[in-house]
Amino acid sequence: MPEIAFPVYTLQRWDDASSTWQDHGTFTTERGQENADYAVDQERLWETGPVRLLKDGVPILADDPATHGFQTA
After folding, report:
1. Which residue in 1, 6, 15, 73 has a CA-CA distance of 20 to 30 Å to 29?
2. How far apart (Å, rounded) are the C-alpha atoms in residues 42 and 8?
3. Mean pLDDT throughout 21-42?
């Protein structure tokens, strides 16, 4: 039986000091998307700042750091 390849979800938070996105968690397996969505919800609940969610390295959700009052360049 072939191994099932699940997508990899990566949660990132904006780091204002370095003006870059920093990895903050990786989620995979059949519950990867559910766990990643929950993590995004928690980050927003706690207002930790801009977040971005990648699926296999491609952004599928991204907050704009400028709307949170952060410098982006």
Report:
1. 15
2. 19
3. 96
Burial zone of 20 (CB within 10 Å; 0-12 exposed, 13-18 middle, 19+ buried): exposed
Which whole number is the average pLDDT over 23-40?
Answer: 96
Q: In angstroms, how far is CA 63 from the centroid of its own chain? A: 10
Domain assignments of the chain as residue spans, ordered by start: 1-16+23-59
Quote the pTM value: 0.87
Element (H, E) at 36: helix 32-45
Q: What is the pLDDT of residues 38-61, one digit of tens each?
A: 999 999 999 989 999 999 999 999
Element (H, E) at 20: strand 20-27
